[in-house]
Amino acid sequence: MQSANMNVMIKAARKAGRSLIKDFREVENLQVSVKGAGDFVSRADREAERIIKDELRNARPNYGWLGEETGAEDGEDPTRRWIVDPLDGTTNFLHGLPHWAVSIALEHKGEIVAGVIFDAAKDELYTAEKGNGAWMNGQRLRVSGRRQMIEAIFATGIPFGGRSTLPATLRDLGALMPFCAGVRRFGAAALDLAYVAAGRYDGYWERGISTWDVAAGIILVREAGGFVESIRGDGPVQDARNIVCGNTALFSEFAGIIRARD
Ligand code: IPD
């Protein structure tokens, strides 16, 4: 049984997804000049966050809030907060690449208890609630059963624009590549996590990531039977700014390789 909160989250994600898809078609059809595309996408992003905030705030006015565009706001209920990335994969969106998503999570007492990720371009809706499993369009998700590193595919985000986490990520890649079947960088962290939950990737790690990028995906992977931790293994993962996750069989070997470089 889906909770009332989950219904609210799904409604908000679908509504924002519809708004974003309209804007995305304009980007795809190049009705937006390359010069104006950045501003156009920021407007699309802000509008999606407004839609989500209205829906969630109307339904649960006392919860706190953390959104990529509008920042943090305390709620009357200090134990619960929504964590929202209205458009994860902004750069893909800007370039007309159909790999981006809406991400909405609910945190209770420092733990993510529900998550929705909506890949509107592919019409894939990922949902998970604590104790109720992970799902995509009504189909139960399980992490992959792969047991050999050499058969495994991992995903990451490669820090751009001179970020300080780039050298460590390049060292991670150097250490991991000889032992696995490949590393992907598709450009939307929420979907990287959803794909681990769906068994498409065998693991994912990233350095220098934000709370809203990973919050919903954390519960998806956990409810699909995988492991999710911060690279240093301390505190709530969603606030750690780095993450490593994977299927049951390979997690410790994979995380060991990443942690050896920390
Ligand atoms: C970004 C994407 C990307 C990840 C970056 C994030 P945004 O989120 O998730 O995959 O590598 O670290 O900032 O900016 O598109 O919401």
From TrEMBL:
GO biological process: inositol metabolic process; phosphatidylinositol phosphate biosynthetic process; signal transduction
Domain of life, source organism: Bacteria
Co-factor(s): Mg(2+)
E.C. no: 3.1.3.25
Residue ranges that the Swiss-Prot or TrEMBL entry lists as coiled coil: none
Pfam families in UniProt: Inositol_P
Catalysed reaction, written as an equation: a myo-inositol phosphate + H2O = myo-inositol + phosphate
InterPro entries: IMPase (IPR033942), Inositol_monoP_metal-BS (IPR020583), Inositol_monophosphatase-like (IPR000760), Inositol_monophosphatase_CS (IPR020550), Inositol_monophosphatase_SuhB (IPR022337)
GO molecular function per UniProt: inositol monophosphate 1-phosphatase activity; metal ion binding
UniProt enzyme class: hydrolase
Binding site for Mg(2+): E68, D85, L87, D88, D213
Record family assignment: Belongs to the inositol monophosphatase superfamily.
The protein's name: Inositol-1-monophosphatase
Originating species: Paracoccus jeotgali
